[in-house]
Amino acid sequence: MNSRLIAVSLRSLKVQNVSVVGSGLMGAGIAQVAAQTGHNVVLNDLNDAALGKAQKGIEKSLGRVAKKMGDEGAKFIEDTMSRITFTTSVEETAANADLVVEAIVENLAVKQKLFADLEAGASAKCILATNTSSLPVSAIGANLKDTTRFGGLHFFNPVPMMKLLEVIKANDTSDEVFQAMLDWGKAMNKTTVKCIDTPGFIVNRLLVPYLMEAIRLVERGHATKEDVDIAMKLGAGHPMGPLQLADYVGLDTCKFILDGWHQEYPDEPLFNPVETLNKLNEEGKIGMKSGEGFYSYK
Ligand code: CAA
Ligand code: NAD
After folding, report:
1. Which of 95, 216, 223, 252 is most enclosed, with most CB atoms within 10 A?
2. φ, ψ at 223 (rounded to 5°)
3. pLDDT confidence of residue 13
């Protein structure tokens, strides 16, 4: 292909219409930032209750952004919300999308089924991407007819505040699709890093073992959880200490990631089960969202 044709094909993958599937913590944040940065957004979930909750959450988060804008704030919220359509229809979600970002439950079979449905309704040029934290990206897209249009876009919680986007090249992701995902990250005002499809990519591969080591350190009685958190905030400049951050991410999410990796890599000691994490999960104390984890939020 000559350079002019390559330029045309790259331009043709420019992303303006973004669909987000899953309107929970991450999906609502991705939809919000996409709308804030001028994209037309379709946000999909299984039922109206989930979409209603997402709408309220987005309005609240936009309120936090808008309060720094003075008189422009109200119009900013109105304009941003007007760019988001809420739907439970997969057909509507796929129909006009240039890019679909999936942020549903962390379950391989459920994600694979969703992508088959999305591919059936999407245009041939539509890019399909997953926000998975811990599953192999290539496995999620393995059953697609066109695996070259598929990759990973891994955002961080809270999406409106965290400036990073990991862009993951899966086994078959084409160069054009990878470049379009990187370009879209910039259009979302995120800084992008390039990743290959390895467990945890960059951030979670380092962050999850660190969080688990912090819990193990407290289990050994080497320091209190409060002192570990103070130490990492003031000694390493982290915005949250590791036990606070584990509560923030969700102890269920931490356990799910660790268990999956332990099963896949039983000889890696960094992925070994952590007793306190299992116990808190059994007690339903899964962090901030449940009102209690390592700390109480009641
Ligand atoms: N929407 C909009 N604005 C928000 C917001 C949201 N959801 N959350 C926080 N903010 C804004 C607040 O309005 C506030 O703005 P001002 O300072 O202008 O008033 C500002 O952010 C700071 O918020 P707070 O004062 O409430 O608290 P903070 O200073 O501790 O910041 C934080 C909150 C941004 C979450 C910060 O503590 C932080 O960066 N924590 C670490 C988070 C982190 O590491 N996330 C990654 C988790 S791992 C992951 O996501 C990957 C995975 O796969 C599991
Ligand atoms: P969440 O539970 O807050 O939201 C998931 C949403 O998906 C729910 O509203 C649920 O109703 C919906 N859903 C489930 N199946 C669906 C389907 N078939 N079609 C449409 N909607 C469906 O979860 P979350 O924390 O936002 O995580 C979503 C994804 O993002 C997961 O893959 C997770 O690993 C990843 N992720 C999470 C974090 C985090 O810190 N929580 C960070 C980065 C990535």
Report:
1. 252
2. -165, 160
3. 76
Q: Which residue of 117, 128, 133 sits with most ligand 2 atoms within 8 Å of its CB, as the best mutation to test the pocket?
A: 133
Report cis status (omega within 30 of 0) of the bond before 266. no
Q: Is 166 one of the catalytic residues?
A: yes
Output the pLDDT for position 38. Answer: 97
- Among residues 154, 174, 281, 292, the one annotated as catalytic is 154
ipTM: 0.97
pLDDT value of residue 3 = 46
Strands (E), the chain: 17-21, 40-44, 84-87, 99-102, 127-130, 150-154, 164-169, 191-196
Side-chain-facing half-sphere of 170: CA atoms under 13 Å: 28
Which atom belonging to ligand 2 lies closest to the Cα atom of 130?
Answer: 32
Token pair of 89 as six digits: 């229809």
User: Which segments of the chain belong to CATH 1.10.1040.10?
Assistant: 204-290
| Residues forming CATH 3.40.50.720 domain(s) in the chain | 3-196
Q: Which atom of ligand 1 is nearest to the CA of 64?
A: 13
d(CA 161, ligand 1 centre) in Å: 6
Measuring CA to CA, which residue among 199, 162, 208 is closest to residue 61?
162
Q: 98 in ligand 2 pocket by Cβ < 6 Å?
A: no
Cα 91 to middle of ligand 1, angstroms? 34
Fold designation for 3-196: Rossmann fold (3.40.50)
Below-50 pLDDT ranges, the chain: 1-11
161: left (phi over 0), alpha (psi -120 to 50) or beta: alpha
- Cα–Cα distances (Å) from 211 to 159, 217, 249, in that order, read 20, 10, 10
CATH number (2.40.128.20, 3.40.50.1000, 1.10.3720.10, 1.10.1040.10) of 204-290 reads: 1.10.1040.10
